[in-house]
Structure formats: C-alpha cells, structure tokens
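Researcher: I'm preparing a figure for a lab meeting and need a structural model of a single chain. I don't have an experimental structure, so a prediction will have to do for now. The sequence is pasted below. Please return the structure as tokens so I can convert it later.
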Amino acid sequence: MRVGKGKIALLCLLGLIMIFASACNSGKKETSNEAKEDPIKIGVLASQTGALESYGKQTVRGFELGLDYATDGTREVDGRKIEFIVEDTETKPEVAVQKATKLLEEDGVDFLVGSSSSGDTLAVLPLAEEYEKIMVVEPAVADSITGSEFNPYIFRTARNSSQDAVAGAAAIADKGVKIATLAPDNSFGRDGVAAFTESAKKLGAEIVHEEYADPSATDFTSNVQKVVDSKPDYLFVIWAGANTPWTQIADMKVQEKGIKISTGAPDIAALGTMEPLVGMEGFTVYYHELPKNEINDWLVKEHKKRFDGEVPDLFTPGGMSAAIAIVEALKKTEGNTDSDTLIETMEGMSFDTPKGEMTFRKEDHQALQTLYAIKLEKKEGVPYPVPVLIRELAPEETAPPIRNK
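Model: Understood. Here is the structure written out token by token.
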C-alpha cells in the first residue's frame, strides 16, 4: 500500500518530536544528577591584610574547624562535598565588593560569609540580594547590617552593636552616673555608641561626651584629653584593631583623675596592652575559658592541636558558628542550596555553637547569643590580664532591638 507524501511528512514530524522529548527528559535527569554531584561552594570574605588582619585569621580558622566539627570531618552534606574559598578584602570596602563579585560570578559560590569589617560588609550586602545568595555575616557588628541595610538574604552569627551595648551598659550604667564614650569614627564605632547610649540612658545614666577618633590613628592624646575635660564617672571605650588607645589612657593617668574605664575585653593581643586596666569590669564576646560546653571543649582542644598550642581567640568561635549554621541548614534542606528554601529553613533556626545555643531571630535574622560579664584579673603564668567570669548574659537578656522595620 502506498503512503502519501503528506502522511510520510507527518510521521517524520512525530518521530522528531518524540526524539526531542526523549532527549529533553534525558537531559533533565543528567542535570539533576550533576547538581547532586556538584560541590557546595562557600566564599569567605576576611581581612587577611589591613588593620583587622588578626580578626580575619581568627574567623577563617574557626570556619574551617566548624566545617569539620559539623560534618564529622567529611566536609560533606547529603552526598555533596563542601568547598570554601577565602578572599582578602584588605579591610577596604571597594576591594570587598570586587572580591565578592568574583566569588559570585567566577567561582559560582552558593553562600557568602564575612567580613571582618562592618564597612566591608555593608558594601557587600546589596550583592547578596542582587545575586540572591545567602550571606552569613561574621564578625562585623554594625547594627545597620541587620537594621536599616537589612535584606532577606542576610543572616548574622556575629553579635551586633546593640548586644554589646546591653552588656556594656549592664556593667556600669545606673541612675545619675555620668559616662563619656570613645570610639572610631566609622559605622562600627558610631553604631556602637548609639546603641550603648540608648541602653545606658534606659538605666538612668547620662552621656556627657561622645568622642570619635580616626580609625587608623596611633596617637589618641587629644581625644583622651577631651574625654577628661568632660569629667565623667566612666569612660566606655569601643574599639577594634591593633591600634588601641590604652597606651595614651594609661600615660595620661585617666583613672588617677577619678575616671573609671570600661570596655569589651578584646582579643588576646589587645589584652596584652591592658595591664593598667586590671580590676576593670566590662564584658566580652568570648574567652576560651568561659563557655562550659562540649563544643567549646572540642574547639579549644582541636585548635591547640592544629595551631601549635595556640588557644582560640575572640572571633574564632564566630567563624565556627557561621560554618555550623550553614551545615545545619543544609542538613535540613538535604543539600538543597536554593536561597528561598534556605531562608525559610534558617528563619527561627536554633543551632549549637561554642558559645551555647544560638537562634536566628525570624524578624531580622540576627543570632541571639550569650555574652559574658567579666572582670580583668592577673593570673599566674599568663602574660596579659585575663577576663574572669562574673556571670553569663543569656541570649534573651542581650536580645537587641529590631531595627529593620
């Protein structure tokens, strides 16, 4: 029987459609399998040079340790390997943007983590939203990160300035107490002072002077003199970096003038410059002897093992907490890195860290966490004043105001 040319053409067309459909279905399966086999990539932004180099080093060490702890050493979740790439922001916002763009476009990372500087971090936040990628902020503290500049892709394991402020105010503020502040003239310093002032005033204190210094300054004589002239009962200092004001404060005999000093106890290198402040009461984010839990015990032991006997420092547990948060979220999503799925998973998520349990507050994605009221004391065999625990400040006690409304 002869088949007409029209029927032949129709049969050929149907055949081509079936072949194309089969190829598409096959392609979809391969794409799905390939996605499952692709590594999960995390881009870590840190100050490996610049004024906050030590903070970047601590964060990166903690992050690597956190990946190993959370995955039992496999660096794998649900069959997918985890890789991380570290980029140096040089503690310069414009460089941070360049490096973040490179991580997102060239390396194709699924997450961003960082950075050491609030200025660097604020510059990068819009990229997380533009590329629709989760960014876990650590250790930058400016309130505006989870406040006025917040976007839904931002989650912060670092404490913020308001949490520091609540802890700092609790240590010294009371009705009728006169307080002056000294801080760097940048977003970290100004946000910190604003938050401290709010907390201190609620407790009845009076802020008699706010002094802001060049963040790169090495001589703070004129700044300290202005504080002395304001005749406060306390000087509350907010500072970050190796160029601390403690030498000028000691040289100018501020305490002998009846002005008590209070601050957040810094990293170990900076503690070494605080000999004149032995006896000071303040707060700290972390000191390796303070948290009493299994994760911190593991951190201290493993850190000493890997890094020639060195103990974890101020921001090491923050880096570890950021890694744990990412891994725990990925476990819940079974390795799915879709940002909408991750946001839904991470909002309200609680996870264990070296500082105890943290919880990402749903409203602004700020991790609520423990801080520590401390007193600086001399300890035999230790070449710097040691933060000794007065009491733990529970997450609900230091919960900051929600500022992203």
